[in-house]
Amino acid sequence: MTERVLTAMQNDHVDIIGHPTGRILLSREPYRIDLAAVFDAAATLGGVLMEINAFPGRLDLSDVNARAALGVGVRFSVASDAIAVRTSGVWNSASRPPGGGGSRPGGISRTPGRFRS
User: Fold this and answer.
1) I need a labelling partner for 94 at 20 to 30 A (CA). Which of 6, 60, 61, 110 fits?
2) Domain map (residue ranges) of the chain
3) Averaged pLDDT for residues 47-56
4) What is the DSSP letter of 109?
């Protein structure tokens, strides 16, 4: 899985890696993926963001993984994964900064667009 993600990150049409670990709480374990390698590549590329999905059934990236990504300079896209009006309240938790508030200005994107330098 790591090689697939790293290869995808090299594609000019990839701006965000969504659901980076693929986990669904209490239902599906995370992928077997070398997140350190993925985070290093994202930081090096500069234009590939990692999604922080705040939907209560996902919480992907976890707080631990988000802090690790922050530590190497990864930027984030924050998403609520709300796909219906009844789940739109999830945005409140999605709007909290990752890593316990350790994100830097410019480290989070909430709008679509091109992020490559």
Assistant:
1) 6
2) 2-90
3) 85
4) E
Q: Which two tokens stand for residue 93?
A: 């938790």
Which residue matches tokens 């590939």?
48
pLDDT digit string, tens, across residues 88-106: 555 555 555 554 445 555 5
Is the Cβ–Cβ distance between 77 and 50 less than 8 Å?
Answer: yes
Q: If you write DSSP's letter for every residue of 15-83 in order, what string do you get?
A: -EE-STT--BTTTBPPP---HHHHHHHHHHHSS-EEEEE--TTT-BS-HHHHHHHHHTT--EEEE----
Q: Report phi then psi at 73, rounded to 5.
A: 90, 20
Say how far apart CA 54 and CA 95 lie, in whole Å. 8
Q: The whole model's pTM is what?
A: 0.77
Distance CA 86, CA 107 (A): 29
In the structure encoding, which two tokens stand for residue 37, read together?
A: 């390698």
